[in-house]
Structure formats: structure tokens, C-alpha cells
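Reproducibility note. Readers wishing to regenerate the assembly model reported in the main text can use the exact inputs given here. Chain order matters: entities are listed in the order in which they were concatenated for prediction.
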Amino acid sequence: MQTSRVPTNGSVGVADDGPASASDAALVRAARLGDGDAFGLLVDRHGPAMLRYARRLVGGSEADAGEVVQEAFISAWRSLDSFRGESSLKTWLFRLVHRRAVDLNRHRRPTPIDDDLISRVMDASSDNPLQDVLDAELLEALQKALDELPWNQRAAWLLREVEGLGYDEIARTMGTTVGSVRGHLHRGRRQLAERMARWR
Amino acid sequence: MALSPTGPLERAAAAAREEQPEDWESVSRSVKRRIRETITPSRPVVVVAGDGSTDQDEHGSRTYIASRVVRARLRDALRRSPEVTAERIDLTIGDDDRLARVEVDLVCAYGTALPVAVEDVQVLVGSVVSDLLGPGTQPLVDVTVTDVVVGDVRLA
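Running the prediction on these inputs yields the following C-alpha cells for the assembly.
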């Protein structure tokens, strides 16, 4: 059995592997005690996927998606004590994004989609420009098809097919049941496939 | 071997999965700035001399340290070991602005001798508090081990 002697001096506690390799649980523990740097690591670990999800969900608007993700993280920072680890941190954060996006959707009228915002840089190091163009056009078509889907179908499809969440995680994120998720996914997939068929 | 997506919807989903939002850095900076600007609830804690007096001079001047500073110092001190870290630090401050009690919930590495770890933490908390708030500050220190994890507690 190893004994414990907590050092009383020396540098601030960063493990040899560096804090970037810390688990979500370890970073949450530190952030709960007010460690903003630990929370910053969580922001950069989960934020890009949250922003990607928010953007597709709110119709491709960078500004709206950025606002949704910022509000979600501020809410997370203020309510870290309420995170009990019953779901993964990722699921909890996606739920916060989903709620903020729902609020945004309720309070704003639909706006036309700026095509320039939909085209994304796929991979800066790509050496296949033709494929990039095809992908960009495909994504543009996907966004238009997603925008025509009912909200819950859109959210369920994005969480499953793009973010790779399990059915129970999607249910937690959307605040619904696994059965409802299956229904939303089934209908969403069918409608999206019909709308994207011309690309075959 | 992974199969390449063939249908348009599958191809679109694959392309969407590869997307890296190019404005992420800007959003990240904004989030972190707003976090820094968030006000953490805090109370002033009075510095107490070795004789128990809070007066710093003949005029009765007093020195205060914000409780958020005390908590942050304790947090950092309790994160220097791979075997022990805090997951909760609560401070109780009396009506006289003196620090009356420190409660610490600990996470320990599997295999750590818990009584030794708890004793070490009590000594360390006393030392940090004394350095910050004066030798006359001698709060009760309650330590509870709430979890045991495998590996370095700062990473696991």
C-alpha cells in the first residue's frame, strides 16, 4: 500500500502528462473549485462538436450557432455542481446546446440561409479540390434538406449520424424517450434520403 | 475494413462529420473571456494575528482576504500530489469575519493510505490558511474521502 505525503511546496499541481490529458471527470472536479483553465480545456475538447451541431440545427447561421454555444458553456460553468455524472459530460453539454437552440428557435423567425455560410472549409490540407467542391455542394444540399425537416427529426438525425451519440444519449440530450428518438430518426432518415436522392 | 459511403445522404453525413468549424477559435476566446468575467461569490475573511487580534495597528486597521482567494489557494495546494485532490472546498466564515471551518471532500488514488492522506491534508490546509490569514486563524478542518480512482487523481 502506498502512503500519501502531500507536497507543501513546489509548482502548482499539473501532472507530468499535462492537464490536456486529464479525463473529463478530473477537469470537472477542478472546474467546480473555480479553476477556469480546467474549464477552458473542456471548452476546447467539446466545443467544436457542439458548434458543428448547433450550426446545422439552427439553419447554418454562424452567429446564431456561436451564441448558442457560448450560452451553453456559460450555463455549464454556473451549474457544474448540478452535473452528477449520470450521463457523460458530452451528453450533458449537448443537452445545454439543444435547450439554447430550442429557445432561439422559439424566439426568432426563420431567416433565409446564406449559402456562403454553409460552404465550409473541409480540410485545409486537402489535395483534392474537386472532392472539396463536391462535398461543399453536398453539405449545402444537406443543410437545405435539414431545414425542411421538423425540429426533432433534424436534431435526432444530427446527433446520431454526425455526432455519433447512442439512442439513450440522444434521448437525454433532447429530453425525450428512446422510443421517440427511434421514431424521429426513422422519419428523418426517410425524408432526408428522399430529398437527397437527386444526388445519386 | 471501413466501407466508403455510397448513397448521397451517407456521403453528406460523412462530410458533415469531417467538418471543423473554422470560427471555433473565435467562439472559444469569447467563452473563456466571459468565464473570466463571471463573478464568483465571495466574502471577505479577516486576517488574525498570533495573539488573536484582528487589529493591524493602533488605529484598529484590519486586513481582509477574499474567500475566493483562500479557496483558490487551497485548491492549488491540494492538487500537487498524484494521490490526493479536492473535489469540494467549503469555507464557513463567522459573523466576526473570521474563518471558522474548512470542509474538504477528497478524491484519492486507489492504494493510498487514507488515514495518512487525511492527516496530511489537515496539516496542509492549516498551513495554507495560516500563511494567508495569519497565525491566529485556526479553523476546524473537516476532511471527507468521497471517492477513490485508479491512477493519478489529477488525470483520472
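We highlight two features of this model. The longest strand of chain B covers residues 99-109. Residues 44-149 of chain B form a domain with the Alpha-Beta Plaits fold (CATH 3.30.70.1350).
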